[in-house]
Design brief:
Radius of gyration: 27 Å
Strand order of the largest sheet: 1-2
Order of helices and strands: EEHEHEHHHHHHHHHHHHEEHHHHH
Number of strands: 6
Number of domains: 3
Largest sheet: 2 strands, antiparallel
Oligomer: single chain
Helix content: 55-70%
Number of helices: 19
């Protein structure tokens, strides 16, 4: 579906916006598109149903050209998604494309009728009128460079691979709890848990506790060497042998064998997820380091290549995207939101936000506590004022985002002394 407002703003309902979806999930569909064009007073000029492909895009361009579209003065477009081939085609040249959140479009729909009816043509008219009347309060899609968009693709894919790996690891842990508690005792206490290469190899070699109890010291040493371990092999082999041969409750032999086959199937998925995560991490590293903003982002405490790439992927490199640091903070969900009505006044955390940036920012703030005395002092000060851990951490990354906005705008590196020069942080850091 496509729609136009003043100077033909257009809308495409070919895919749902997923900016507020759960991490690692998508919700996309492709349907024929409806195009509508209205004048400044709201008069309908044209409507057309197009397909979400090259032929549909050509039809759209012809329809736009009939109503005054030109390379020098392109007609803006309203659309309910920020990605896809149609969006990429629309963003060529100087055309402004407005990605309207479906929730906002739903609220606008209620302005035109209280019956809650819904249709493609009606939604197209709603988006057309959004740009006709309220274009100034909506931001067009940022003019990010191709390099930044490529980093966004890789960083989001790597983040999805990590989430997928964790999800499969959780399934394996739940399965092992049913019949193989020795494996949990052997590997969960180690960093990486069941995703460790040595854990995957041992579980693939001995998918049942009966088979694991038969593993010899030489076999365990061989597995540890194959997993890349070079130190403490003898001690670790002895520990694993003792854990795997300890006394545990057992399922019947046939049931245990069935569980073992299920484990092998999940291990294949986990192996693929781990390999995908590693390959995408290497691709992110290579692509991100070539970006002009990489040096500035990596100068911040707690930001490694992967976290920095995720931050760049969600904020982009269009320096006109946010008018000030407050816009960036609101986009990340770190700035509080106020709800006031009469004598009621409530200030709380922001629920509508970029979930990927919000997730990365929390990890960034947590990592900065070890590498930045100023960040640690700021966090301790907030805890002393009565903030919970999550509140203090959100307050810290709110401040870090403000500093990031300043450094990117001024093209300067992070400076610990200038970033945390308040009397509170200075005195706390000196006392530590």
């Amino acid at each position: 579906m496509i729609s136009t407002g003043y100077r033909c703003p257009w809308y495409d309902g070919g895919a749902d916006d997923t900016s507020e979806s759960l991490p690692g999930t998508t919700n996309q569909k492709i349907i024929p598109s409806r195009s509508t064009n209205v004048t400044a007073p709201g008069e309908l000029l044209a409507k057309r149903r197009i397909s979400d492909d090259a032929a549909g895009y050509r039809i759209l361009l012809e329809l736009l050209a009939e109503h005054g579209d030109s390379p020098e003065s392109p007609i803006p477009v309203a659309i309910e998604t920020s990605r896809g081939l149609l969006v990429a085609a629309l963003r060529t040249g100087r055309r402004r494309v407005f990605a309207i959140n479906p929730l906002a479009a739903s609220r606008y729909r209620d302005r035109h009728g209280v019956s809650r009816k819904k249709s493609d043509l009606g939604d197209a008219l709603v988006l057309a009128n959004i740009l006709r009347t309220d274009m100034a309060v909506h931001r067009p899609l940022p003019a990010d460079s191709d390099q930044a968009q490529a980093i966004a693709v890789l960083a989001r894919a790597q983040q999805d691979a990590v989430w997928n790996r964790q999800q499969i690891g959780n399934q394996i842990r739940s399965l092992l709890r049913e019949y193989y508690p020795a494996a949990l005792d052997a590997f969960l206490a180690k960093q990486g848990g069941l995703a460790r290469e040595e854990a995957r190899i041992i579980l693939a070699k001995a998918p049942t506790p009966t088979e694991a109890s038969r593993l010899s010291l030489s076999q365990l040493r061989s597995v540890l060497k194959r997993a890349g371990r070079v130190r403490g092999i003898e001690e670790e082999a002895d520990r694993l042998r003792g854990v795997l041969r300890a006394e545990y409750a057992h399922q019947p032999a046939a049931v245990e064998d069935a569980f073992g086959k299920q484990l092998l199937a999940l291990l294949k998925q986990l192996e693929a997820a781990c390999q995908a995560s590693e390959d995408l991490a290497e691709a992110v590293d290579a692509c991100f380091r070539e970006h002009p903003d990489a040096e500035i982002l990596l100068s911040f405490p707690g930001l490694g290549v992967q976290f920095a790439a995720r931050v760049l992927a969600e904020t982009g490199d269009d320096r006109d995207r946010f008018a000030d640091a407050r816009g960036l903070k609101a986009y990340a969900g770190s700035a509080p939101i106020t709800r006031a009505s009469g004598k009621k006044h409530y200030v709380g955390r922001r629920m509508v936000k970029n979930n990927r940036l919000h997730h990365a920012s929390y990890l960034w703030a947590f990592s900065s506590l070890r590498s930045s005395p100023g960040a640690q002092a700021h966090y301790r000060h907030r805890r002393d004022l009565g903030d919970w851990h999550a509140q203090a951490q959100r307050h810290l990354f709110n401040r870090l985002l403000g500093q990031l906005f300043h450094c990117l705008q001024k093209r300067v590196l992070f400076d610990e002394q200038r970033a945390f020069n308040s009397p509170v942080s200075s005195s706390t850091a000196a006392a530590a």
